[in-house]
From TrEMBL:
It comes from Trichostrongylus colubriformis (Black scour worm). Belongs to the GILT family. The keyword Glycoprotein applies. Keywords: Glycoprotein. This is Gamma interferon inducible lysosomal thiol reductase. The keyword GTP-binding does not apply. GO terms for molecular function: oxidoreductase activity, acting on a sulfur group of donors, disulfide as acceptor.
Length: 229
């Protein structure tokens, strides 16, 4: 869960302002795709959660690379709400994560990347690169380059964001969203419906249940497990 204490009015204003910064353009307005519908995917995860990492590396990113123009993806870095929280402590935001301070720091790093580069085509590969057990500085050095940041910001600026109240507040905002929708991670919503099977067979679930009509790339993908029963 996310709690706000100490100075609730300041925290509320900060989160409203940051949420506007973080989500301006994140609901990307795709042109009408004559070949089919666009499917919305919300993914809730944590930066050092092994199950989130597996889903990100083996399911979400390959699916995005295959069907990108048919998908609108929003990723929310926070964690299991039972063990993860952000609080206003005096003049600062403090966050506590299931896998320790390093997870909070990398959650904030992902949240800052999404804020600086709100369109999925600009940030999803970066989020995937950051995801996993690498140390914070190693992730910054390996993932945040002038090319990957589209020359819109610098690695130092994004790293400072992650270490600051701004980054922790952005993470808290993702937690506020997750608290209403997803008690665990990874948690996948497709068109606002939880799809447990998508955690292991995302392409199959999209092709068999959501794409209308299915794109040609779906031709070689078999039935979902429920259809096999």
């Amino acid at each position: 869960y996310v709690t706000v204490s100490g100075n609730p009015n300041m925290m509320r204003l900060l989160l409203i302002g940051l949420s506007m910064l973080a989500y301006t353009g994140s609901l990307r307005s795709y042109p009408l795709i004559k070949s089919g519908n666009v499917v919305n995917i919300d993914v809730f995860g944590a930066s050092r959660c092994i199950h989130t990492s597996t889903f990100m590396h083996e399911q979400l990113l390959p699916t995005y690379r295959l069907f990108g123009s048919r998908l609108r993806i929003q990723y929310h870095p926070f964690g299991v709400t039972k063990y993860t929280k952000c609080e206003w402590e005096g003049r600062h935001v403090e966050c506590f994560c299931q896998h320790g301070p390093s997870e909070c720091l990398k959650n904030a790093l992902q949240a800052c990347v999404i804020s600086y580069l709100p369109e999925q085509d600009d940030h999803l590969e970066l989020i995937n690169c950051i995801q996993g057990g690498a140390a914070f500085n190693d992730s910054v050095n390996a993932c945040l380059t002038e090319k990957t940041l589209k020359s819109r910001t610098t690695a130092d600026e994004v790293a400072r964001c992650a270490r600051s109240d701004v980054g922790r507040s952005l993470m808290a905002h993702h937690g506020w969203i997750q608290n209403r929708k997803a008690p665990e991670v990874p948690w996948v919503l497709i068109n606002a419906t939880r799809e447990k099977e998508a955690e292991h067979s995302l392409q199959r679930v999209l092709c068999k249940r959501y794409f209308k009509p299915p794109p040609p790339e779906c031709a070689g993908i078999g039935p979902t497990s429920s259809e096999q029963l």
